[in-house]
Each structure stands twice: as structure tokens, then as C-alpha cells.
Specification:
9 helices, elongated
């Protein structure tokens, strides 16, 4: 049995806490009802940015609240009003940050969702304390407001630790297709014979022992890295939509849509493009593929 550090053990117990699943299910249902629009979800995921939105905009509330607490420690006149303004700015900035995090959270695996739920609970409690801090400051109870902000930052630190664990240890929000450039060949490599591919039906094949999505349309063959950039879903089991250069595949796990022509994201939750391979069909109808630019 492996030995864990106390903090690691505590976080792993959260991952494995099946008792959280009813709360996860209820929260997911509420979030899905609040965010029914795919367009809004894509905006919150950060599809338009090409990067997850949540970690980028969380700097607004976090930076504002830390700055407010720094001002609280400065024995200078005129800092109290600025600190109050910063706390209020952080509260306002927390609203889109929470919405972006919630949109991402609904499309995670169960273990990740448990961690994310506790992460959100800690940050929500911190937000409540920051709202109370702002109200206390408005009533000229600045010492109380400062203490409430410090307590809120303590909860925020715990929430940030869980968020880092979710992102980096559990892989929620990271690019799961990042390994493709390291594993797939840069030189032309035989994939199969053209006759081995059913026309119009996605197929999963191995290229240098790496799984790839393959689609034949006549003599045209499209090849993508098979594991979805979002959470490694098998694209070869996904549904095809569109026609011509706009043919897309939908990940069967969480619904990310990628254009076969260039791997670009047409719908989230993925914000990362899917790696696309170059393909060559030789005169003997053997299909070769490789990464890299045009020859």
C-alpha cells in the first residue's frame, strides 16, 4: 500500500468520496439548467480564446482581494476606501469566474467533479466572506472588514490548492492531445491499404503504436490523433456531421466537435485543436501518414 503525505491523502479522500455524488448530481443538474445554450457554454469554456477561460479571469477577483489585504496592512490614510473598492471589484469579477468554472466542471469525470465540487464550495465560502467584508467596510467597520478578507483568503488558498490538484494531478482542463507531436512520426509511415478502409465510416488504427482516427471518403483520407484533447475520448467512436471541407467529428464522451480538415474546435468543451496528420495515398493504394508541414 503506497504511503501518501497527509495533504495528498486528504485530497485523494475527496476524489474517492462517493458520498459527494448526490450533491454532484444535483449541482450538475442545476448548472445544466442555468447554462442551456451551447453558444454561452463555448464562450465560458474559452473556445473563442483558444484557452480555458476560467484560470485566466480568476486573476481579477484573486488579484483584487490580495491587493485589498495588502492595503489593509499599510498604515496610511486614504487606503481604506481603495481597499473597499478592490474588495467590491473582486466580488463582481467572481461572477463570470464562477460561471466559467461551472461550465468546465459539468464536463469532467466523476472523480474530478468531486474535487471540483469541494473546490467550488471553499471558494464560494470565501466569496461570502468577501461580500461580508465589503458590507463591513461600507459601514466603516474596517478592522472587521480586513479580518473577514483575511479569512476569505485562507479559504481561497484551500480552494486554489484543490483547483491546482484538479488541473495538474487529475488532468481536468489540460490538453490530453499534447503528447501527439512526441509520439507520432514526422516521416511518412505506412498506415494501411486504401481497400482496408470502409468508405464513410470512422476507423481506429495504430500508427507507430499510436491510436489515430481515420476516415476514408473515396480516395481522400483524413487522419487525426484519436484521443480527444479534452479528456481523451475516442474520436473514432464519434458521430460525423457536415460535408466537404466542413466535415466534423463529435467526441462521444463530452461533445467536443472538431473539423477534420484542420482539427479546429467548432464546439467545446475542448478549447484545444485536435492534431491532424498529413496523408498520402500512393499509386499502389497504400495510405501513408505523418505529422509536419507540407513537403
Amino acid at each position: 500500500m503506497r504511503s501518501l503525505k497527509p495533504l495528498d491523502a486528504a485530497v485523494e479522500s475527496v476524489e474517492q468520496a462517493t458520498g459527494l455524488d448526490p450533491a454532484v448530481a444535483a449541482t450538475k443538474k442545476a448548472v445544466d439548467a442555468a447554462l442551456p445554450s451551447a453558444t454561452v457554454r463555448d464562450a465560458l469554456h474559452g473556445v473563442w480564446l483558444g484557452h480555458p477561460l476560467h484560470p485566466a479571469i480568476m486573476l481579477v477577483p484573486l488579484g483584487s482581494w490580495i491587493s485589498a489585504s495588502v492595503l489593509d496592512l499599510l498604515p496610511r490614510r486614504g487606503t481604506q476606501g481603495a481597499a473597499q473598492t478592490l474588495v467590491g471589484l473582486g466580488v463582481l469579477g467572481a461572477v463570470p469566474t464562477i460561471a466559467a468554472g461551472a461550465a468546465d466542471w459539468t464536463d469532467l469525470h466523476p472523480r474530478q467533479q468531486r474535487t471540483g465540487l469541494v473546490h467550488a464550495a471553499a471558494n464560494t465560502a470565501g466569496l461570502v466572506l468577501q461580500i461580508a467584508s465589503w458590507r463591513a467596510r461600507r459601514q466603516d467597520r474596517h478592522v472587521r472588514g480586513a479580518l473577514l478578507s483575511i479569512a476569505a483568503l485562507g479559504l481561497g488558498t484551500a480552494g486554489a490548492y484543490l483547483g491546482g490538484h484538479l488541473a495538474y494531478r487529475q488532468g481536468g482542463g489540460t490538453n490530453h492531445a499534447e503528447r501527439a507531436p512526441y509520439d507520432l512520426p514526422d516521416a511518412w509511415t505506412r498506415l494501411c491499404a486504401l481497400e482496408d478502409l470502409a468508405d464513410g465510416t470512422p476507423t481506429r488504427l495504430l500508427l507507430d503504436d499510436v491510436p489515430v482516427f481515420v476516415l476514408r471518403r473515396g480516395r481522400q483520407v483524413d487522419v487525426l490523433f484519436d484521443q480527444c484533447a479534452h479528456l481523451s475520448g475516442p474520436l473514432s467512436e464519434g458521430e460525423l456531421t457536415g460535408s466537404g471541407d466542413d466535415v466534423c467529428v463529435t467526441c462521444p464522451w463530452h461533445g467536443s466537435v472538431f473539423r477534420l480538415k484542420d482539427g479546429q474546435v467548432r464546439r467545446g468543451p475542448s478549447t484545444y485543436p485536435q492534431p491532424v496528420l498529413r496523408v498520402r495515398v500512393d499509386a499502389d493504394d497504400s495510405v501513408h501518414a505523418r505529422l509536419g508541414e507540407d513537403d
